[in-house]
Amino acid sequence: MIVLRQVAKSFEDGERQKQLFEGLSLKIARGSFVCIRGRSGAGKSTLLKILAGLIVSDRGDVFF
Fold first, then answer.
1. Which residues are in the ABC transporter domain (predicted)?
2. pLDDT (tens place) for every residue of the chain, 64 residues total
3. Cα dist. 64→14, 16, 33 in Å?
4. 49 φ, ψ to 5°?
5. Which of 13, 18, 20, 34 could form a disulfide with 43 if both were Cys (CB 3.0 to 4.6 A apart)?
6. Which domain does 21 fall in, by range?
7. How many angstroms separate the Cα of 2 from the Cα of each of 17, 31, 34, 39?
């Protein structure tokens, strides 16, 4: 099982701070299939990188 609790991630875009997601909570049961979709720049790849442990979220908890 994968559990995300109140995960947030942002990055600097030039002089501005861009919030990709904030307060994201998600529970994925073992053996489940999940589709992550959204517009370009919404944070889909960033979320997958957080789930893979390649980058760290700004806030929140990720449990495996």
1. 22-62
2. 999 999 999 988 888 888 999 999 999 999 999 999 999 988 999 999 999 999 999 999 999 8
3. 34, 33, 16
4. -65, -35
5. 20
6. 2-63
7. 28, 11, 11, 24
Alpha-carbon Rg for the chain, nearest whole angstrom, is: 12
Confidence (pLDDT) at 14: 83
- The 10 Å Cβ neighbour count of residue 6 is 12
Q: How many CB atoms lie under 10 A from the CB of residue 37?
A: 6
> What is the structure's pLDDT at 3?
96
Structure tokens that stand for 4 in this block: 């995300």
The DSSP line for 17-34 is: EEEEEEEEEEEE-TT---
DSSP β-ladder status, 59-63 and 2-13:
antiparallel
Structural domain count, the chain: 1
Give residue 52's identity as a one-letter amino acid code. A
